[in-house]
Amino acid sequence: MGANQMDYIHIISNASLMVKFVLLLLLFFSVMSWSIIIIKMRYIRKAFKESDIFIDYFWKSRDLAGAYTKAKQLGGSPVARIFRIGYAELRKLNTSGKPGEESGVPDETSSLRHEFSGSGNVKRALRRAINTEMTRLGQMVPFLATTGNTTPFIGLFGTVWGIMNSFHGIGQRGSASLAVVAPGISEALVATAAGLAVAIPAVIAFNHFMQKIRVIETELHSFSADFLNILDRDILR
């Protein structure tokens, strides 16, 4: 263990109770932030990878039943999940059948109404699925923004407290020597440095994840539009 590490441990162990509490609070934010960063990084990386696999399979196969089977294998893909919901809604429409089929007399007006109603149902199901996916992707990410916004102020609070203790020591001892002032200032600087060390990675990760989530959202809307176009053009007619 180096001399610098020993100095930091000495400073923290001799810090006031309030500064120790501030450092403990910053440690909590740091552990939570890094846990979220690791979890979201794995989740988003898997979402991109499996979505690419599914979209590639979907456009190559052009087989909805096969794509549905493939989508069930790719549980980490948001695109595959919204396809499964859209396909399930489509199967409900096929199960209900077209108007006039039972009587054997086709009714063009009823059939057209059924067609637009079916397309609307699938569209609403896809929209709900996209909203659900966006909620799922955004989970825990706001905590990173909270960490980035609040921990510098928490560290600053420790700084102010340490400086107050320094002036209190000067008043009690009647001396403004470096030996009296330095310990309190050190506590203050450690708290500030800790607050910034927690905040900076959290802000970087928050901006990174929000950019990735926006890309996935665009991908979901594009796939949804393409899927509805296929239904309107080739299936619900």
From TrEMBL:
Keywords: Cell cycle, Cell division, Cell inner membrane, Cell membrane, Membrane, Protein transport, Transmembrane, Transmembrane helix, Transport. One of its GO terms (biological process) is bacteriocin transport. It is a multi-pass membrane protein. Its main location: membrane. GO terms for cellular component: plasma membrane. Residues 96-116 are annotated as: Disordered. It is found in: Cell membrane; Membrane. Residues 120-220 form the MotA/TolQ/ExbB proton channel domain. This is Tol-Pal system subunit TolQ.
